[in-house]
Amino acid sequence: MSKLFARIAAFFSKRTFIGVDKAGNRYFTIKEEIDCILKEKRWVEFKGEQEPTSIPVEWICWLNGQRKIAPTPEEIMELEARREHVRLNVALLKKEKEERKATAREGSKKAVSSGKVGGPDLKSFIQQFPYASEGDKVDQASDGRIQETKEEKGKPLPESSEPTGSGASYKPETWQPPT
To answer: How far apart are CA 169 and CA 52, in angstroms?
Structure first.
């Protein structure tokens, strides 16, 4: 009897049924005139327990007025298919990431088990220094410093664009850059 009364009351009210979502929630609208302005009110009637998180995003946008037109069933099906495609892509990317991590772990275990550790390339580092090329003999003092050879002492030093001298020989504002 109460269902019959509800249907009769709904028939005489001004509300308009708009649609239903996958969870069975029903969406309605009513147009009211407030202060000589025609306004539309939108609401949802939940099927079963009132759980706001069960409302799809498209319907939330419609309820808040971000959409003028309610979502169509075709649009909802298309968006669900797109969401499922994204879920599958995310799962695939996570699987690839885990595989890369596993191969990286295996690679690091192999390096440790062989006893070889990759270090810096010392040849390229030594080649940066002009006095110690590969075939030259470098004289070292007993304290570890490199000593100049007689040939190097006789060679003039290349001119630098930086001022030379310090201490007593320094005179302010006398240095000029080379031209």
So the answer is: 84
- Threshold 0.85, pTM exceeds: no
End-to-end CA distance of the chain, in Å?
A: 107
Amino acid identity, residue 153?
K
Query: Using one digit for the tens of pLDDT, what is the confidence trace for 120-132?
Result: 777 777 777 766 4
Calculated CA dihedral for residues 74, 75, 77, 81, nearest 10 degrees: 140
Contacts 24+ apart (CB under 8 A), 114-117: none
Q: Is 29 helix (H, G, I), strand (E, B) or coil?
A: strand
15, 27 contact by CB (below 8 A): no
Beta bridge partners of 140: 146
3-state secondary structure of 155: coil
The answer to whether the CB of 55 falls within 8 A of the CB of 66 is no
Are the C-beta atoms of 7 and 17 separated by less than 8 Å? no
